[in-house]
Design goal:
The chain is built from seven helices and 14 strands. The protein has 254 residues and is of the alpha+beta class. The strands form four sheets. A four-stranded antiparallel beta sheet has the order 1-2-3-4. A four-stranded antiparallel beta sheet has the order 5-6-7-8. Strands 9-10-11-12 form a four-stranded antiparallel beta sheet.
Length: 254
C-alpha cells in the first residue's frame, strides 16, 4: 500500500511526502542506504525507506518458521546487535524475534524471494554450498543465487560494495541535489559526487579459469552477473523494481 503523504511517529514535526530519487540517501529510521521510492520531509531533509515508513507491527519469515519478528524503533538491550540477513550492525529500526534473538533490518526482512527481469532469475537463499563470486567464501550471510546455481552473491558483499562506493555521501554530512556533480561538506569543501557502484566483472574474470575456449562463457557470465548485481543492490536499497535497477546499472557504468 502506498500513500502520497503520511504522518510518522519518528518525525512528528512535519508530514512526510512520497518521493522518488536517483540520488542515494541514508534512511533516518534504520540508518541504512536507500535509493528510489521513499518518504521525505523536504523541510528537514528527513528520509525513510518505504519499509521503514510503513512497517508491519509484526512479521514472519520463511527462513525462520518458528519466529515472530516485532518491529522496534531501537535495538533491544545494550549489547551490539547485527542483522541475521546481511551480518551488518543494527543501529535503528529493526524487526526482532524475542524468543530466538534474531534481528533483521526492515529492508532485509522484505527482500524478495525472487528477482526476475525477464532474462535473469535470482533466488534468495539462507545458505548456499557454492562460494560467493565477490568474496570467494561460503556461508556468511543470505545470498541471491541464479537459476543455474553457478552465480551467487552474498547480501553482505553487496552492502560492502555500497559502503565502499558511497562513503562520502553518508559520512561527510553532505547536502546533495538530483543534478549536482559536487557535494559540499560541513566545512564548505567541495567533493566530487561518487555514486558509482563497482562492477563484479573483474572479480568474475579472476574467479573463473582463463582459457581460449572459456572466453565466450566468461563474457556471458560477466554480463549476467552485471544484471544480477543491479537487481540485488536495488533490492537491498529498498526498491527492487526494474526501473531503479536500470538506474543502478547506469551508475555502475559511469
Amino acid at each position: 500500500m502506498k500513500y502520497n503523504e503520511i504522518s510518522h511517529f519518528s518525525h512528528p514535526e512535519h508530514q512526510l511526502t512520497y518521493d522518488y530519487t536517483q540520488v542515494p540517501f541514508k534512511c533516518d529510521g534504520c540508518n541504512e542506504p536507500g535509493i528510489g521510492s521513499h518518504y521525505k520531509c523536504t523541510t528537514c531533509n528527513y528520509d525513510l525507506h518505504v519499509h521503514c515508513a510503513l512497517p508491519s507491527p509484526s512479521i514472519s519469515h520463511p527462513f525462520y518458521t518458528k519466529c515472530t519478528f516485532q518491529f522496534l524503533t531501537t535495538p533491544p538491550g545494550s549489547a551490539a546487535r547485527y542483522c541475521n540477513a546481511c551480518q551488518k550492525d543494527i543501529s535503528g529500526f529493526v524487526y526482532h524475534c524475542k524468543a530466538c534473538g534474531f534481528d533483521l533490518h526492515p529492508c532485509c526482512a522484505k527482500l524478495p524471494a525472487m528477482l526476475d527481469d525477464g532474462e535473469v532469475k535470482l533466488y534468495l537463499c539462507r545458505k548456499v554450498g557454492s562460494a560467493c563470486h565477490k568474496c570467494g567464501k561460503k556461508g556468511r550471510s543470505w545470498s541471491y543465487r541464479s537459476t543455474c546455481k553457478k552465480y551467487n552473491l552474498h547480501v553482505a558483499c553487496a552492502k560492502e560494495m555500497l559502503a565502499e562506493s558511497w562513503h562520502d555521501i553518508y559520512y561527510r554530512g553532505a547536502q546533495i541535489g538530483e543534478n549536482d556533480d559536487y557535494i559540499i561538506d560541513m566545512y564548505g569543501q567541495n567533493w566530487k559526487l561518487e555514486t558509482k557502484i563497482p562492477s563484479l566483472k573483474g572479480t568474475l574474470q579472476s574467479y573463473h579459469k582463463r582459457g581460449p575456449k572459456r572466453k565466450g562463457k566468461i563474457k556471458k557470465c560477466c554480463r549476467i552477473a552485471g544484471l544480477a548485481v543491479q537487481f540485488v543492490i536495488s533490492a537491498i536499497l529498498g526498491d527492487p523494481t526494474t526501473l531503479i535497477a536500470g538506474v543502478v546499472g547506469a551508475l555502475m557504468s559511469k
